[in-house]
Each structure stands twice: as C-alpha cells, then as structure tokens.
Automatic annotation (TrEMBL):
<dbReference type="GO" id="GO:0016780">
    <property type="term" value="F:phosphotransferase activity, for other substituted phosphate groups"/>
</dbReference>
<dbReference type="Pfam" id="PF01066">
    <property type="entry name" value="CDP-OH_P_transf"/>
</dbReference>
<dbReference type="InterPro" id="IPR000462">
    <property type="entry name" value="CDP-OH_P_trans"/>
</dbReference>
<dbReference type="GO" id="GO:0016020">
    <property type="term" value="C:membrane"/>
</dbReference>
<feature type="transmembrane region" description="Helical">
    <location>
        <begin position="73"/>
        <end position="92"/>
    </location>
</feature>
<keyword id="KW-0472">Membrane</keyword>
<dbReference type="GO" id="GO:0008654">
    <property type="term" value="P:phospholipid biosynthetic process"/>
</dbReference>
<dbReference type="InterPro" id="IPR043130">
    <property type="entry name" value="CDP-OH_PTrfase_TM_dom"/>
</dbReference>
<comment type="similarity">
    <text>Belongs to the CDP-alcohol phosphatidyltransferase class-I family.</text>
</comment>
<feature type="transmembrane region" description="Helical">
    <location>
        <begin position="143"/>
        <end position="172"/>
    </location>
</feature>
<feature type="transmembrane region" description="Helical">
    <location>
        <begin position="104"/>
        <end position="123"/>
    </location>
</feature>
<dbReference type="InterPro" id="IPR048254">
    <property type="entry name" value="CDP_ALCOHOL_P_TRANSF_CS"/>
</dbReference>
<feature type="transmembrane region" description="Helical">
    <location>
        <begin position="184"/>
        <end position="202"/>
    </location>
</feature>
<keyword id="KW-1133">Transmembrane helix</keyword>
<keyword id="KW-0812">Transmembrane</keyword>
<feature type="transmembrane region" description="Helical">
    <location>
        <begin position="12"/>
        <end position="31"/>
    </location>
</feature>
<keyword id="KW-0808">Transferase</keyword>
Amino acid sequence: MQPRFVGRVSLADAVTVANAALGFLAVVITAEDVELGARLLLLAAVADGLDGVVARHVGSSAAGPYLDSLADVASFAVAPAVLVFVTVQEGWSVAVPSATPRAALLLGVPALFVAMAVLRLGMYTAYDTRDEYTEGVPTTLAATILSAAVLSGMTDPSVLIAVTAAFCYLMVSPIEYPDLLARDAFIMGVTHSLAVLLPMWANRSFPFALLLLALAYLTLGPRFYWRDGLPDPPLVGSKGNA
C-alpha cells in the first residue's frame, strides 16, 4: 500500500521537504558546531529558493503553500533561534535556567523570534496573496542575516540578541518588501552557495558578501528596489517570499 502523498505532491514539494530536513539538521548540528549549523541553514535557504524555481517551471500541488510554510518553521524560525541561543550562550557563558537578566534574554528573545516567525508565516499563507510584494521581513532574510553574521565572525552576543529582537518586530511589521527579480535572486543564490561551500575563503569573503547583500535588501529594499520597467520576471511563481 503506497503512502497517501504519492501522486499528490510535486517535485517542487519534494525540494520543500528537503528544506525542512535541512532545518532539522541545522538545529542538531548547531549544538556541536555553530558554523556548520549556520552553513546548513544557508543551504536550507538555497533549497527554499529552488522550490520556487521548480514550481514556476513544472508546477506545484495544492499542498505546496502549506508544505512551504511548515518547512520554513523548521528552517527559518526554529533553526536560527537555536543558532542565536547557542552562539550567545557561548559568548556570555550563561547557565540556563538561571535567575539572571542575561539568562532571561538568552531564552526569551529566541523564543519570541520563533513565535513571531510562525505568526509571519501563517499570515503570509493566509493573507499575503499579492505577487510582487510581501508584508514584513521574510523569515528567510532574517535567517540569512543571522547565519551570515555568524559565518562572518560577527558573533558579539549583545549585538546578536539585539538584532534578533529587532527581527521579532520587523517580521510582523506592515513594511512592504518586493520579491526579488530572477537576476537578483540568482546572484543571491550563488552567493548563498559560495558561503556554504567556501565559508573561510579569502578571510570569510563570501559570508561577508552575503551579509552585505542581505542587509542592503533589508534596509533599502522597501524604498529603492524598483520592479517597474525591469524586463526580468519574478523568480518565484506559486511560491512567494515568506
């Protein structure tokens, strides 16, 4: 007797499920090797982009949007929160649980990040149906910035906690972010891949480049990233920028 998903899910959905598995691996590995965990998280982001490419060319299934959001919970909500928790705990040398302000921040901020990321993904799946824009910082972007920062060696605990706390609001804010055009998404995908494969090359050049690109989109994208009049079609088809 075949599993019930046979014949009901598409190739794009299979890539989405791989994204979820990579998110789990990132969580487990981060406990032992923070930088390898960050690389796996970035690899999950690559898979998240690929499922959109595949969906655009060969189509998705009715389950696709739901699978996409569920996979993103693992890879871009839980995994980056664990990455921040482990990195900050090592930097502060804080025992948990303990009745100290730092321990409260160490537990509270990543937990809030997960909660806000889940809310953002749920709101996106239910309400954000426009093709070219999405409201709030995408969870993939937040996870990419945190992972690239770790791989770039920017692991100051106070800064990581502050940035993660800021994302807790930005992910559920009404700020509109345009979906990347195919040309720019390809550049980001290549940079992601190089940061995964060669994180230490030329004094961490690829993670640093990825961090700069992601920060540029975070800060400048809502106001200055114009799609009108550009010939490139959006990279994603039925799957959007969650």
